[in-house]
Amino acid sequence: MLEHSSNKRVVAHCHADAPTHERQTNLNLARWLAEILDWPFDGAWQEPMPLTGMYLVPTRTLVGEQRRELGVEGVEDLLGGHVEQAFMASKAISHPLPRGAGFRPTGWVPEFCRQVRQVVLPGLTVFDITDVRRIARQYLGQAELRVKQVQACGGTGQAVLRSLQDLEHWLEQLDPDTCRQGVVLEENLQEAVTYSVGQVLVDGLLMSYHGRQHQRPNHLGEPVYAGSELWLARGDYAQLLQGDLQPQVRLAVEYARTYDAAATACFPGFFASRRNYDVVQGLGHDGQPRLGVLEQSWRVGGATGAELAALQVFRQQPEVCRLQASTHETGEQQRLPAGAVMLYRGADEAGGFLLKYAQVQNHDG
Predict the structure, then answer these.
(1) Burial annotation 189-211 (CB, 10 A radius, 16+ → b, else e)
(2) What one-character-per-residue DSSP string does 200-238 give?
(3) Stretch 117-131: mean pLDDT
């Protein structure tokens, strides 16, 4: 257990090309965290800022020397994580490279893929358009393929390919620079449900959780993230697993733990105070059930509002050991439920309406 920090200043840090709603959400999360911890809030990060005594809330996993440039030494200095190479913070790490890959990023760790092979879906990661076409042609016809741009989030940057015509149409829209960041090709599941499994460590307090993600159609009719419902326990996964979990949820937690342990073992310089894993359950092309970790999130994410809502209760009420909390993202104009905390109200990236909020639903205290 870490010693409690003192005299830190909470600072929001947003990547340069973030849309307005993401910037404002991050600012509101950082402000709320400062209130929970009773620490000063210094607003959005800007140069020059004194780096000592700062607690960073970044929208992206820190990469390489960025953490030193921002004064981050370890998990006690941020709500998020750090990796040495950018691809390590993306979906790219979940699958191995194909044989004869046209491009291999610096720092690629084959051992990680070997250690997580049994807890992810069948799939490959490529960084070259020629490889995308070659691999997709091999597998199309046997099963539907889900293709994902590894830097996209919230359900965007994905497509399901059912034919060679689908493949060529999708490739027409894929530029080489985007592909060089990474593209995942994996089996598409039917009747899919996405679980969230994770841990958050803030100022010495550790929480572990499992939950479910929800989706809604965006203005184009595409499914996008709509919120998460989490069940959280004070402490580590051992405390979480003491609860009455359904077998598939218990297995999702174990798969996420395996993935997390492999990251810790295989990626030099990796650390994270927020570790969130998406685990999907569904039916494969043969009608058989599948379960696998899709990706990691070592940064502020869609479920962070629920995590902070839980943190607030756990800090204020030491007798509470378990609770249920949720985040919501909707395009509907509505009033906030009683006790909810608003994270954003305004325009989305397409000019439509977006409301984000978080709340605690119940606890054992």
Answers:
(1) beeeebbbbbbbbbbebbbbbbb
(2) EEETTEEEEEEEEEEEEE-TTS-EEEEEEEEEEEESSHH
(3) 94
The three-state secondary structure class of 126 is strand
List the end-to-end C-alpha distance of the chain, in Å, as a whole number.
Answer: 23
Maximum mean pLDDT: which of 1-10, 141-150, 192-201, 212-221: 192-201
CA dist., res. 58 & res. 273, Å (int): 12
As a whole number, mean pLDDT of residues 153-182 equals 86
The pLDDT assigned to 156 comes to: 66
Average pLDDT (222-251) is 93
Torsions phi, psi for 89 (to 5 deg): -95, 10
Place of tokens 């990691």: 296
R_g of the chain computed on alpha carbons: 20
The DSSP element (H or E) to which 80 belongs, if any, is: none
Buried b (16+ CB within 10 A) or exposed e, 85-107: bbbbbbbbbbbbbbeebeeebee
CB neighbours of residue 265 within 10 Å: 13
Query: SS3 string of 252-321?
Result: HHHHHHHHHHHHHHHCCCCEECEEEEEEEEEECCCCCEEEEEEEEECCCCCCHHHHHHHHHHHHHCCCCC
Residues recorded for the chain: 365
Taking the whole predicted model, whether its pTM rises above 0.85 is answered as yes
Q: Structure tokens of 231? A: 């069940």
In the block, residue with structure tokens 């609860």: 243
CA-nearest of 307, 299, 303 to 90 is: 299
Q: Which of 81, 76, 80 is nearest to 4 (CA)?
A: 76
- How confident is the model at residue 3, as a pLDDT? 44
Whether 142 has a pLDDT exceeding 80, the answer reads no
Report all structural domains of the chain as residue ranges with CATH numbers, in order of start: 9-87+192-363 (no CATH), 90-119+122-188 (3.30.1490.20)
Closest to 259 in 3D by CA, of 91, 123, 126, 67: 91
